[in-house]
Design goal:
The chain has helices at 47-50, 55-58, 69-81, and strands at 9-13, 19-23. By secondary structure, the chain is of the alpha+beta class. The protein has a domain at 28-81. It has a two-stranded antiparallel sheet. Strand 1 (9-13) and strand 2 form a beta hairpin. It is elongated and about 70 Å long. The chain starts with 8 loop residues before the first strand and ends with a helix.
């Protein structure tokens, strides 16, 4: 098993008396708005668990899903005014 050095390791003694190395799983962070950095309303899951979700739970049904609603409204206002 190949694990990078940045993953935390700890030793565990199994019921059989063996000492084995375990690895801590990294916590995934919330998706953020590309413009202002605000937290988006998407599930905070790892890539492995996101694959099991249906498509409708992964992304919003609106244009520019990588922007928060405030930034999206500002973008459309600027676009209309120019």
């Amino acid at each position: 098993m190949r694990i990078s050095k940045s993953v935390k390791r700890y030793k565990v003694k199994t019921p059989g008396g063996k000492n084995v190395m375990n690895f801590k799983k990294r916590k995934s962070s919330y998706p953020k708005c590309k413009k202002c950095g605000a937290k988006l309303n998407k599930p905070k899951l790892s890539v492995k668990k996101l694959k099991t979700l249906p498509k409708t739970k992964k992304r919003p049904q609106r244009p520019f899903p990588e922007l928060c609603s405030r930034c999206m409204r500002e973008y459309f206002k600027e676009k209309v005014r120019t």
